[in-house]
Specification:
7-stranded mixed sheet, alpha+beta, 346 residues, 5-stranded mixed sheet, 11 helices
Length: 346
């Protein structure tokens, strides 16, 4: 069963969270079966810098995988600090652009490297699961990439802790927040972002697709598909993620997906937030080429290779269309049906 997104009514949100019993049973037995003989890999983490002391009870930790994000990594840290993140647990996957120096010796950043590359750790699953074990389970974590900026209802003035309260009152143990690709209003070349603290990346790549998405019950939970990568390049990519989650002994990425960690039966929930995905800018062509060379993303970077192969994709190319919307804040996303405000359902 699939649903149009953004939603048009409260009933549509209920449909996203209403999963047939057969689907739930399949998810339960798949998780139970996957635990039998599961292979646990040692990701060979190496501490580079940071306090590296145990988390305190009140800490809000954010796990992040990063590679060559120097153009926006300072904004990433600044943004999540403003939302109340107190510790960043970051694996730097062989950055060569200054990212490592930008992260080193930050008082709230535990910086790691690994003997393995992203592509050798099942898309970073081994790293994330290892961090859960190192820093402790039975607590809330953010699990992010450096180009993802979480927006939730009222996030301009509310903290991650407030959002966690919304989820707990609703009986949810994780937040379904799809990646919404953002892009400049004009040509890619116009999306020049300078990470000097004066703007956010989403104020430069400020637009996103306002329609054309679908949500469907899939193997690892509810899955959103669509956006400009499908509209313009025919790339059917799963956009759903669960970047804020309660991590207990049952929680594992390796037993699920980067887009839906196990147990998957926890992933059949309505969308309660959005990840503004800073993927299209004046740097995109160079970034996509590097992704394809490394081959570490989904399908060895094939998605980005297909975009680069498009005869239309160039510095002068614009992703905008009549249905494009400008990001103006969390309330607008709620009103347009891009995310559910749990405070209004209490």
């Amino acid at each position: 069963m699939s649903f149009k997104y953004p939603v048009k009514s409260t009933a549509d949100w209920h449909k996203q969270g209403s999963v047939p019993v057969v689907r739930k049973l399949k998810s339960y037995f798949r998780h139970a079966k996957s635990k039998i003989g599961v292979r646990v890999n040692d990701p060979k983490l190496v501490r580079q810098s940071g306090p590296h002391h145990p988390l305190l009870e009140h800490d809000i930790p954010a796990i992040c995988v990063v590679r060559n994000a120097n153009n926006y990594i300072r904004s990433f840290l600044r943004y999540y600090r403003s939302l109340g993140v107190t510790r960043f647990i970051i694996i730097d996957d062989r950055s060569v652009d200054g990212t490592t120096a930008a992260l080193s010796n930050q008082p709230d950043v535990d910086l790691f490297s690994s003997e393995f590359e992203y592509k050798d750790t099942d898309r970073g699953k081994d790293w994330r699961d290892a961090f859960f074990d190192i820093y402790g389970r039975n607590r809330w974590y953010l699990s992010l990439d450096a180009d993802e900026f979480l927006v939730f209802p009222g996030s301009e003035s509310r903290s991650i802790r407030d959002f966690i309260g919304d989820l707990e009152r609703a009986g949810m143990s994780r937040a379904h927040c799809p990646m919404i690709d953002i892009y400049p209003a004009g040509a890619l070349s116009s999306g020049v972002f300078v990470d000097d603290g004066s703007k956010w990346p989403f104020e430069v790549s400020s637009h996103f697709d306002g329609d054309g998405y679908t949500v469907k019950h899939e193997r690892y939970g509810n899955a959103l598909r669509g956006g400009p990568r499908q509209r313009l390049f025919g790339r059917d990519m799963r956009l759903s993620k669960f970047p804020l989650l309660w991590v207990d002994d049952a929680t594992h990425y390796r037993l699920g997906s980067i887009h839906g960690p196990a147990p998957s039966m926890r992933n059949f929930t309505p969308i309660t937030g959005v990840l503004l995905h800073y993927r299209f800018s004046s740097d995109s062509i160079d970034e996509f080429r590097k992704i394809v060379e490394v081959g570490g993303h989904a399908d060895g970077g094939a998605h980005y290779g297909a975009i680069l192969a498009s005869p239309h994709f160039s510095e002068d190319f614009s992703l905008a269309y009549p249905g494009s919307l400008r990001f103006t804040g969390s309330e607008d996303l709620v009103e347009r049906g891009f995310m559910l405000d749990l405070r209004r359902t209490a």
